[in-house]
Design a protein that fits this description.
Order of helices and strands: HHH
Number of helices: 3
CATH topology: Helix Hairpins
Shape: elongated
Largest sheet: none
Number of domains: 1
Helix content: over 70%
CATH class: Mainly Alpha
Radius of gyration: 14 Å
């Protein structure tokens, strides 16, 4: 997920995508603990995706307060 894609999403889409990524992150943590994770790089990608979405939500919230 690229930052450009995140900027184009609506607030509802961001919320839905965040929930989806959090579930995937939870599943990847369990797979990592049992040693059955297929793509270890995916853990990093998901973590960064969550951070991008949270950053965008924070920026939008601060912009809304400034108005």
């Amino acid at each position: 997920m690229k930052a450009k894609d995140v900027k184009q999403m609506t607030d509802d889409q961001l919320h839905d995508k965040l929930i989806e990524l959090k579930k995937e992150q939870f599943n990847l943590r369990f797979q990592s603990a049992t040693g059955s994770v297929e793509n270890s790089a995916r853990v990093r990608q998901v973590r960064r995706g969550v951070a991008r979405i949270k950053t965008m939500q924070t920026e939008r919230a601060s912009q809304a307060q400034a108005k």
